[in-house]
């Protein structure tokens, strides 16, 4: 039986890929997991202890991934780098903690895999802080910042070996880029809606128009309804894209109502719902669905460091 088992052992090339993916999973878990991370911190030690072939393969993987010689200090070096990432990842496990992240925490001399994850942590942390900005600041900085990080990260990915070690990092970074574009799109359309609301409120405060003036105003009101309907439809489409991503990808610090927490988004939609003159029937139905699903609750409003009342304020 033992001879039969030996004949059916996996080839080293396949074992290499499997162990590299296990290492990649552990590096990612060390950063984002709130519990059960100790095994991941010691992943190199644990896998190396399985058998001689595992130990030799893990030496090659970890030596390349963490840029350290294959000597007796490799295991401690890997553990030290993972412990450092664990500490840095606290910024996205508890983003509400004041000053939980600083650019000074980034180490330019660290292995490139660690640098890549440091950039990822910075990106997620800045996303969690974006809810505290204004729509103008969010629109002008989010896409630009993520675009720059993504470009730099892609350059790093090309230098990380083995490629499998950066597989989850690459996917997670691309997810953040998609999130940034979705968020900017939603905030942009809410800014348009806010402008329409301002015009509508100004009209209501003006003196009553003459009959012929009211008649002339109808085309403008129809145009406003069209713009409102287009904006609400675009926001709903962005929400569908977000939910598809949220359902399939692990997104740290990203509740299902994340879009509603972006600057002035929920408050603007709640105000538009109370302006029937701006809404066609289709837009009213679509908007009602969004507002009901995004309505702040105590649980959803506080889990990311944003209270429920601030979401509804407007």
Structure, described:
The protein has 314 residues and is mostly helical. Among the domains are: 1-94, no CATH class; 181-204 and 218-312. Helices cover 72% and strands 0% of the residues. It is built from 15 helices and no strands. Helix 7 (112-129) runs antiparallel to helix 8 and helix 7 (112-129) packs parallel to helix 9. The longest helix has 39 residues, at 167-205. Mean pLDDT is 85; it is low at 299-314.
Quick synopsis:
The chain has helices spanning 2-7, 12-32, 38-41, 43-48, 52-65, 74-93, 112-129, 135-157, 167-205, 211-248, 258-261, 265-273, 281-294, 298-302, 308-312.
Q: How does the overall form come out from the CA principal axes?
A: elongated
Q: Average pLDDT across residues?
A: 85
Strand composition percent: under 5%
Q: Output the helix-strand order.
A: HHHHHHHHHHHHHHH
Which stretches are low in confidence, meaning pLDDT under 50 for 5 or more residues running?
299-314
Largest sheet: none
- Please tally the β strands and state the result: 0
Kindly provide the radius of gyration, computed on alpha-carbon positions and rounded to a whole number of angstroms.
Answer: 25 Å
Termini separation comes to 73 Å
Secondary structure tally, helices: 15
Layout of helices and strands:
Blueprint: H1 2-7, H2 12-32, H3 38-41, H4 43-48, H5 52-65, H6 74-93, H7 112-129, H8 135-157, H9 167-205, H10 211-248, H11 258-261, H12 265-273, H13 281-294, H14 298-302, H15 308-312
Helix pairs in contact: 2-5, 2-6, 6-7, 7-8, 7-9, 8-9, 9-10, 9-12, 10-13, 12-13
